[in-house]
């Protein structure tokens, strides 16, 4: 009976201590962690390494640097609805990693079409690029449908898209209704 009680006490104590952990409850710990990736151990990047934009770091000047690309260097989109400009999205990455972005969507009342609004333009384009996830293996129709769905455009009179992928291949879609 005493042995059973002693065993139960040890088991309970082990469970209680295991549940307590190491006592480090600091939720704002910004220290780097390591990740075991098989044969090697890599150090995780600092939380602010890519800036506020997952696509890359942001500079304070009109141009911004990208650390991770979208898979393309140039994205130029123009959509007209009933013959009127509805969406105009331009994104261009330069060889040095900087980029320029303009975004205008009259359907949503968004107009970041000048150098002073680079941050806002890339934030909007970043959302769009994450929604459409372009791949050069996709058909032109798939690309067009993904873009129209992401922008919630039901009917259009003009769809004009030019993409230059990172490897230099291009995709052009021009359609007038």
From TrEMBL:
<feature type="signal peptide">
    <location>
        <begin position="1"/>
        <end position="19"/>
    </location>
</feature>
<dbReference type="InterPro" id="IPR025623">
    <property type="entry name" value="YusW"/>
</dbReference>
<protein>
    <recommendedName>
        <fullName>YusW-like protein</fullName>
    </recommendedName>
</protein>
<feature type="region of interest" description="Disordered">
    <location>
        <begin position="20"/>
        <end position="69"/>
    </location>
</feature>
<feature type="compositionally biased region" description="Polar residues">
    <location>
        <begin position="22"/>
        <end position="42"/>
    </location>
</feature>
<dbReference type="Pfam" id="PF14039">
    <property type="entry name" value="YusW"/>
</dbReference>
<keyword id="KW-0732">Signal</keyword>
